[in-house]
Amino acid sequence: MSFNINNRRYTGSKYKIVPWIRQLIIDNCKDSKSFCDLFAGTGVVTNGLINDFDEFIINDFLYSNEIIYNAFFLKENFSEELLFKYYKKYKNLLVDNLKENYVSKNYGNRFFSIEDAIKIGYIREEIESDKDKFNKREYSILLSSLIYSFDRIANTVGHYDAFIKNKTIRSSFQFELINPVIESSSDYREIAIMREDANILASKINSDIVYIDPPYSSRQYSRFYHVIENIVKWDKPKLYGVAVKPEPENMSKYSSSKAIDSFRELISDLNSKYIVVSYNNTYNSKSKSSQNKMSLEDISTILNRKGLTKIYTTEHQAFNAGKTEFKDHKEFLFITRVGAFNE
Question: What architecture (CATH level 2) is domain 15-338?
Fold first, then answer.
């Protein structure tokens, strides 16, 4: 089995409603050739529109997401023969002759079984030590394949803010390769992959359509996915606390009291024909960490100052990795025609 881009658990993933988002963009954003996914997350929205435009910008501030975009979308040739050689080795890896490593010492019997953690750490170390044998695409494909493989069996509810306690963790890790979207450097599309603060990037880009799906609650994605981030970066920092997290980094203003000001600044700086914003109504959640930092009215007010804004809605039970229940969950899509203020 090979992994497609949507085959991972990710809070806020829009995978189930991508057809709805795509159709609204096609219907409302006429004469557009370029698409920017500014808070790309899993990358599934870009993937859903990959055949509709000629130019793409894919951005996210997580290291792991940048690696995943390189694996699926980077316009660089890769050797299937080389990848299959490593696939066969990792698929049939036996733990008996492997030593304890950074992953097993920190995450074993927590996020993974000891045996699985030893395998994950061994594979990660070898991918790094053999890095000179790969081009950027091959390195990213192997590393993303490792991410998708261990994410499937991790002892979590879907994110890594904590592991499930008082549970016997079964060893079930199986290494599988991802299935790249862009197959070669000769692909006709222009694709730029970035890892930048969206507010800094906003004034630097020029795209017909800018799609925005920022975090809305106080939950920080860099903390939710710290295990994946740490294994990708492979700096092997000291880890702290019950959830064995590194020191905080990449903390988003959109998950803080600065969210509204940040959003207002972002929208003001964008140079595009259309702005498309995803939003969900979890702001009434009983859980404070799940409550939105921006309301529907905040977003409407800011977007209406930029141009004519239409709002669409659909029923959608979002991926929720925790215990918080969201009743009557709806997904909203704002589409702003920049500079237009009447039909």
Answer: 3-Layer(aba) Sandwich (3.40)
Q: How much helix, strand and coil, in percent to the nearest 5, is found in the chain?
A: 40, 15, 45
Rounded to a whole number of angstroms, the distance between the first and last alpha carbons of the chain is 49
User: pLDDT under 50 in the chain at which residues?
Assistant: 283, 285, 287-290, 321, 324, 326
Q: Any idea which residue has 């890769």 for tokens?
A: 78
Q: At what angle do helices 80-91 and 114-129 cross, to 10 degrees?
A: 150
Secondary structure class of 181 (helix, strand, coil): coil
What pLDDT is stored for residue 258 in this prediction? 87
The answer to whether the beta carbons of residues 331 and 278 sit under 8 Å apart is yes
Contact 214, 41 (CB under 8 A): no
Distance CA 249, CA 245 (A): 11
Place of tokens 């994605």: 221
What is the three-class DSSP state of 73?
A: helix
Q: Answer whether 246's CB lies under 8 Å from 240's CB.
A: yes
Neighbour order of strands in the sheet with 209-212: 190-194, 55-59, 34-37, 209-212, 274-280, 330-338, 307-315
What the block records as the tokens of 99 is 């030593």
**Is residue 180 a contact partner of residue 79, using CB atoms and an 8 Å limit?**
no
- Computed on alpha carbons and rounded to an integer, the radius of gyration of the chain in Å comes to 20
Provide the pLDDT for residue 288: 47
Q: How far apart are CA 89 and CA 321, in angstroms?
A: 33
